[in-house]
């Protein structure tokens, strides 16, 4: 197992693990993850829900790598994370008022599927032109999105059809081998995490709960 998260096939960015008596700080960890994504790489990182597989949401080739790693049909759109309301509006033509209400009132991480996706990798957008977006408030993923200055793909760290990795220890060895960088932050965490709620908003204003 290549615990450093360096792909044996595509070594985009060689990142050695810190020594056992050294703790990588969050700033350095985020900087390394950002550098990998800017080069078109794929990362494993902790989010506001479960551990996620991430990449630059505007890079079509990077998104294709994520689908391949997940062994998932690219007709199934992936979720994107952003750090703020302003960033979300860069990727959706018109965000309806009800979406802001949902984000404001949500008591747990909530993903909203919105029509009119723009400025994203074409293979990330659903056939109906929609995109699943979530504004993260968790400390690490929020800063990661802020430092990257773009939307980041956030799909659960598992092979399609298998259980999501709630914590780092739950991530399958083949995923650790397949990506280009594994974030160091929150690896020691051992507590329950669940995927986000998903709500779809249609153009006519209809609200559908996809996942509670």
Brief rundown of the structure:
The chain is an alpha/beta fold. Helix content is 25%, strand content 17%. The strands form 2 sheets. The protein has a 6-stranded mixed beta sheet.
Would you give an account of this structure?
With 212 residues, the chain is of the alpha/beta class. The chain has one domain (26-211): Alpha-Beta Complex (DHBP synthase), CATH 3.90.870.10. 25% of the residues lie in helices and 17% in strands. The protein is built from 6 helices and 10 strands. The chain has a 6-stranded mixed sheet. A 4-stranded mixed sheet has the order 7-2-1-8, covered by helices on one side. Helix 1 (26-38) crosses helix 5. The longest helix has 13 residues, at 26-38. The protein is globular, with a radius of gyration of 16 Å. The chain starts with 25 loop residues before the first helix and ends with a strand. Mean pLDDT is 89; it is low at 1-22.
Estimate nothing, just give the exact number of structural domains.
Answer: 1
Strand line-up across the major sheet: 6-3-5-4-9-10
**Rounded average pLDDT:** 89
Describe the biggest sheet?
Answer: 6 strands, mixed
Task: Examine the coordinates and then state which fold CATH places here, giving the name of the CATH topology.
Answer: DHBP synthase
* Backbone shape: globular
Layout of secondary structure:
Elements: H1 26-38, E1 43-45, E2 52-54, H2 60-70, E3 79-82, H3 85-88, H4 97-105, E4 110-114, E5 131-135, H5 139-148, E6 152-153, E7 155-156, H6 173-178, E8 181-182, E9 197-201, E10 207-211
Parallel strand pairs: 1-8, 3-5, 4-9
Antiparallel strand pairs: 1-2, 2-7, 3-6, 4-5, 9-10
Helix pairs in contact: 1-5
């Amino acid at each position: 197992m290549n615990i450093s998260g360096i792909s044996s096939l595509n070594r985009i960015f060689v990142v050695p693990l810190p020594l056992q008596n050294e703790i990588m700080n969050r700033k350095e960890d985020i900087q390394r993850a950002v550098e990998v994504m800017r080069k078109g790489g794929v990362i494993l990182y902790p989010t506001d829900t479960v551990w996620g597989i991430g990449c630059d949401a505007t890079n079509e080739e990077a998104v294709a790598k994520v689908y391949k790693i997940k062994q998932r049909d690219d007709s199934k759109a992936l979720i994107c994370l952003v750090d703020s309301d302003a960033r979300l509006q860069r990727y959706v033509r018109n965000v309806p008022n009800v979406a802001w209400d949902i984000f404001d009132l949500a008591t747990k991480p909530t993903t909203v599927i919105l029509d009119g996706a723009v400025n994203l990798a074409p293979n990330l957008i659903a056939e109906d032109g929609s995109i699943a977006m979530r504004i993260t408030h968790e400390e690490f993923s929020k800063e990661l999105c802020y430092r990257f200055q773009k939307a980041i793909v956030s799909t659960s760290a598992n092979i399609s059809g298998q259980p999501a990795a709630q914590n780092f220890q739950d991530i399958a060895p083949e995923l650790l081998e397949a990506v280009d960088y594994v974030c160091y932050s929150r690896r020691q965490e051992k507590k329950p995490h669940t995927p986000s709620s998903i709500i779809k908003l249609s153009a006519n204003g209809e609200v559908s709960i996809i996942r509670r």
